[in-house]
Amino acid sequence: MPDDKRIEAESRWELLAKTGADTPMGQLLRRYWWPIAGASELDTSPTKPVRLLGEDLVLYKDLSGGYGLLDRHCRHRRADMTYGYVESCGLRCNYHGWLYGADGRCLEQPYEDMAHPEAHFKDEVRIKAYPVEERCGMLWAYLGPEPRPLVPNWEFFTWKNGFRQIVTAEIRCNWFQCQENSIDPVHFEWTHSNWSVRLKGNTGPYSPKHVKIDFTEFEYGFQYKRIRQDTSDEDGLWTIGRVCLWPNALFTGDHCEFRVPIDDENTLSITIHFARVPREREPYVQGRIPTWHGPINDPATGRWITTHVMNQDFVAWVGQGEIADRSKELLAPSDRGIVMARRRFLSDLEALENGKDPKAIVRDATINERIVLPVAERHTLIEGRTRAEYLKDPLARRALQGYVFQAGQPPEVRDEFLAAMGFNGMEIDAATRRD
Ligand code: FES
Ligand SMILES: [Fe+2]
User: Residues 329, 177: contact at Cβ < 8 Å?
Assistant: First the structure.
């Protein structure tokens, strides 16, 4: 490649990976709402340190139930606001007691208010503050300019009769290579199907190969579609496929994996999983959506955990390097979706420069009542199935045996899940043995 072309390509890759507020992509990404925590994480401690897009912040829930996201460091002398205490309205620094509201205004300066009330010093003080909203048990933050868009109300947030759980992990690499995995059908065959067989010490057989893939863009992302040796062009995996949800997620129907930039070298993976309860369990209304944090490496061996589906993905992502060096890639026809996604971001950078909204910004409240997405297993997820049908389906039964996507599900979450589904471990084991 001639030198000037190489420099152009390298700077384009750097452009796509950088997320700081002073970078073009950082500006673009700040136009979207980002999930940063499960609301249930604040049940045990009302503050949580959050690093998002390279900014150090503290998330809190005050005594009135209001959420806020403030600078991690107090505006006074920079004490860590994570150790502040929540009040009926806002968060108070534990050092000299300055109190801040969710809009960043300083509401109290105890000593100054007492000794120099006439100075009204607090009226001049603002701490960095960003809006937070709760949707479907997750807390969402917006770091961009006003007018802010709406937090998208994806239809799977509205599905009824399901048990949801939120699962987080911190991945030591740039968010963009994680998101590229959201439009990469062929990896499933090798990273999950074939590798899982070999991780169990077996050597084969190979799973059915992909024979055809396709990618189509729609308003809220891209669909990727596949035909494998064991499926046809009538299968939902081809007619509907899976969704690379814009700009930051993979949506498969029963779960949605968001890739959230902590900074340029770290990503928060935050997944919301939906398990439709059997029809006999209806109506089922979940009280609180549990959130748990999954480990990614095994302290006994120092190696990455490889037992679960997303852990296998994490291994691939971190293996690409802190920030994948795209100048050394050799793209192939299977990567067409990735090229489409990169081009969309690059053209949206131009759109932003021209004062336009980038892709998938939602501002219309009527549209946001429920944004319908392509879902291959729509009927099963919405209408559900009977207990007997559950136990008959090997994939559903596997999901009943344990959470398949990430290692480390706490036993109490598994118990809540089984109680919601109306199964006990013995029944599932018996059904599995009948196979
Ligand atoms: S450092 Fe926070 S009030 Fe002084
Ligand atoms: Fe995967």
Answer: no
